[in-house]
Amino acid sequence: MKIKSLFLGLMITSSVSFAQVKTDSLFIVDKVINDSIATKSALTEKSPIRASLYSAILPGAGQLYNKKWWKAPIALGLVGTGTGFTIYYNNLYKKYRKAYIAVREGTPNEFTGILTAQQLAVIQDDYKRKRDYSVALTALVYLLNIVDATVDAHLFSIRNDPEMTFKPTVLQDEMTLEPVLCLAFNFKF
User: Fold this and answer.
1) Residue 37 half-sphere exposure, CB side, CA atoms within 13 Å?
2) What whole-number distance in Å separates Cα of residue 111 and Cα of residue 103?
3) d(Cα 159, Cα 4) in Å, to the nearest integer?
4) Cβ-based neighbour number of residue 148 at 10 Å
5) Of 41-45, 95-99, 121-125, 162-166, which range is least confident?
6) 147 CA to centre of own chain
7) Which of 25-34, 67-76, 107-116, 123-132 is predicted least confidently?
8) Of the ranges 15-24, 91-100, 111-120, 148-157, which one carries the lowest mean pLDDT score?
9) What is the C-alpha separation between 77 and 138, in angstroms, rounded?
10) Distance CA 133, CA 45 (A)
11) Which residue in 37, 47, 52, 171 is deepest, having the highest Cβ count within 10 Å?
12) Confidence at 168, pLDDT banded by 50, 70, 90
């Protein structure tokens, strides 16, 4: 009888104690999951390396990754326009270079009797300079596109931080007592 009552007591005690542990652990796990979801939704972060790689592969893709939709067509358009100007000036340079070489060798070409060798040399140098400038500016725009995507990715969590905000506010001017529109910076810590 003692053994049966001891065994019954152990079973009841163990089931009650395990039930408390399970309930507490479920409560703690549920709380941790809810806290992590709340933290993750409040502050999502973007990877600067991924944004840089996307912009390096296709100009504007890093801006799309950072959810800066309006910057993507600007970046793609600027790089595309620079590439177009580079190709245009390179084709004209090749055309006048070929004509210059033909005039120097004495073979007829489309500019025979219209332009001299000296004039063709000046025109070819002008188009070469324009081509080189457009290559340099296109490379600069391309690099700025990558830098912009990287900086936006670094600042993404700060931009979406509810504790740091810029917002318009109306203040009263101390001298004239008129309302003045201002920009307030709020930082909670």
Assistant:
1) 6
2) 8
3) 67
4) 20
5) 41-45
6) 8
7) 25-34
8) 15-24
9) 11
10) 38
11) 52
12) confident
How much is the pLDDT for 18? 46
Q: Which residue has the tokens 């007829």?
A: 108
> What is the C-alpha separation between 181 and 168, in angstroms, rounded?
7
Question: DSSP labels for the chain?
Answer: -HHHHHHHHHHHHHHHHHHHHHHHHHHHHHHHHHHHHHHHHHS----HHHHHHHHHHSTTHHHHHTT-TTHHHHHHHHHHHHHHHHHHHHHHHHHHHHHHHHHHHT---TTTTTS-HHHHHHHHHHHHHHHHHHHHHHHHHHHHHHHHHHHHHHTHHHHT-TTEEEEEEEEE-TTT--EEEEEEEEE--
pTM for the model = 0.62
Q: Return d(Cα 129, Cα 116) in angstroms, integer.
A: 20
Encoded tokens for 18: 């395990």
Tokens representing 49 are 């390396």
Is the pLDDT score of 140 beyond 90?
yes
Question: Residue 20 carries which side chain, given as an amino acid letter?
Answer: Q
- Other C-beta atoms closer than 10 Å to the C-beta of 65 total 21
pLDDT of res. 185: 79
Q: How far apart are CA 1 and CA 112, in angstroms?
A: 126
